[in-house]
Automatic annotation (TrEMBL):
It comes from Flavobacterium endophyticum. The lineage of its organism: Bacteria, Pseudomonadati, Bacteroidota, Flavobacteriia, Flavobacteriales. One of its GO terms (molecular function) is metal ion binding. Belongs to the GARS family. Keywords: ATP-binding, Ligase, Nucleotide-binding, Purine biosynthesis. This is Phosphoribosylamine--glycine ligase. The keyword Translocase does not apply. Pathway: Purine metabolism; IMP biosynthesis via de novo pathway; N(1)-(5-phospho-D-ribosyl)glycinamide from 5-phospho-alpha-D-ribose 1-diphosphate: step 2/2. It comes from the Bacteria.
Length: 423
């Protein structure tokens, strides 16, 4: 079948790589893609949120399935756009409906959903410009640090964790009144701070049944020892060594099952990935966020560990027959290290020639911010390459990734040398 994948990051390169291993995928387009997807599929220059252009392309090329990588098109309602269009309604979209995508698109919606379905999460309050004073009073009832979250999508930057009460009050005003994160912070969720280690759980669902994918942990800070600014993610490890059978059972029974049941009870159509961000507080898993897509760079370790046919799984999702297929996982560990442009996540330069990819052995190089100019692969974003390796344990896998990163070169290249340090 002909498949269209939307997105352009390392996540999409990993999804494309895996889908192309299926006999069921005869042709794969990626919009807009990167140099990595260009080498294995066909890139097309369409924005993932330009639904009219996507429609024209899908009809013209007889695309038979659309797989959505990033959250923006999902929150903007691509699932409903297809469903409500006579010419498109029989073409499955792998992703939630617009309502389902609100689990990521609105922190308040997600919190209401969690509370309604009795899923463990931090206590919270939700405030607007009109209730600023109430919000500041609410902060006084909490102990530091204070967690402030812009309600809407803010490209991963909308969460502030602040030690000082007065500063937290000032930031709350900044967000609500001065629109620090634009429209996204016209509402702010204030949460109780949860102290523990983070991990992520990934679920594929057809809206009724579900499959739990391997666990993963990412490293969000730019600096070694988890210091400095937040990034999209600087590396990831799967499985998470501390996620033992007891913890996984709690995650499934208290979080995954009630989430999928909750979607069904609330009549929310959902045929795609759910990425559940968790904090393990004294061995009690609690939800800190939902995302309605796979994580990046977590995909670059989770997807390589699936031995099942991903396209078959997607077809089962589309047909609501996920309970009839099995999901097989490679027992080895997988790790990925992100190689980024110097300066990221702040200002950085693009267009730097990348060399050495062809010398990598025993690791997989997934491209993120890259493009090809006159046959030369150059940098085209902050996060540039994700170097994934397998190993009998995560240490062995990490070592392979670092050995191969030594062969890569571009001007001002940076990567964290301590991925997995805390495990
Ligand atoms: P989010 O965008 O909701 O994932 O938040 C970004 C990051 O903020 C998370 O990965 C956590 O590290 C942190 N965080 C969010 N909510 C809380 C919380 N209630 N307690 C402690 N840390 C949090
Ligand atoms: N790595 C975190 C995310 O994809 O949101």
């Amino acid at each position: 079948m002909t498949i269209l994948l939307l997105g352009s990051g390392g996540r999409e390169h990993a999804l494309a790589w895996k889908m192309l291993q299926s006999d069921k995928c005869s042709k794969l387009f990626v919009a807009p893609g990167n140099a990595g997807t260009e080498a294995i599929a066909k890139n097309i220059n369409i924005s993932p949120t330009d639904f009219e252009a996507i429609k024209n392309f899908v009809l013209q090329e007889k695309v038979e399935m659309v797989v959505v990588g990033p959250e923006d098109p999902l929150v903007a309602g691509i699932y409903d756009f297809f469903k409500n269009d006579e010419a498109l309604q029989n073409i499955p979209v792998i992703g939630p409906s617009k309502k389902g995508a609100q689990l990521e698109g609105s922190k308040e919606f997600a919190k209401e959903f969690l509370v309604k379905h009795n899923i463990p999460t931090a206590a919270y309050g939700s405030f607007t410009k009109e209730t600023l004073e109430k919000g500041q009073k609410f902060l006084e009832t909490l102990s530091p640090p204070y967690v402030l979250k812009a309600d809407g999508l803010a490209a991963g930057k909308g969460v502030l964790i602040i030690q000082d009460l007065e500063e937290a009050k000032a930031e709350l005003k900044n967000m609500l009144v001065d629109e620090k994160f634009g429209q996204a912070s016209s509402k702010v969720v204030i949460e109780e701070f949860l102290d523990g280690i983070e991990l992520s759980c990934f679920v594929l669902t057809d809206g009724k049944s579900y499959k739990i994918l391997p666990t993963a942990k990412d490293y969000k800070r730019i600096g070694e020892g988890d210091t400095g600014l937040n990034t999209g993610g600087m590396g990831a490890v799967s499985p998470v060594p501390f996620a033992d059978a007891v913890l996984l059972e709690k995650i499934e029974n208290r979080i995954v099952k009630p989430t999928i049941d909750g979607l069904q009870k609330d009549g929310i159509e959902y045929k795609g990935f759910v990425f559940i961000g968790l904090i393990n507080v004294k061995n009690e898993p609690m939800v800190i966020e939902y995302n309605v897509r796979m994580g990046d760079p977590e995909t670059e370790v989770v997807i390589p560990r699936l031995t099942s046919d991903l396209v078959e799984l997607f077809l089962a999702v589309a047909d609501e027959k996920l309970d009839q297929v099995s999901l097989e996982v490679d027992p080895r560990s997988a790790t990925t290290i992100m190689v980024v442009s110097g300066g990221y996540p702040e200002e950085y330069e693009k267009g730097k020639a990348i060399s050495g990819i062809e010398n990598v052995t025993d690791s997989i190089v997934f491209h993120a911010g890259t493009k090809t100019v006159d046959g030369q692969v150059v940098t085209n974003g902050g996060r540039v390459l994700a170097v994934t390796s397998y190993g009998d344990n995560f240490k062995e896998a990490i070592q392979k990734s670092y050995q191969n990163i030594d062969k890569l070169k571009f001007e001002k290249m940076y990567f964290r040398k301590d991925i997995g340090f805390d495990l």
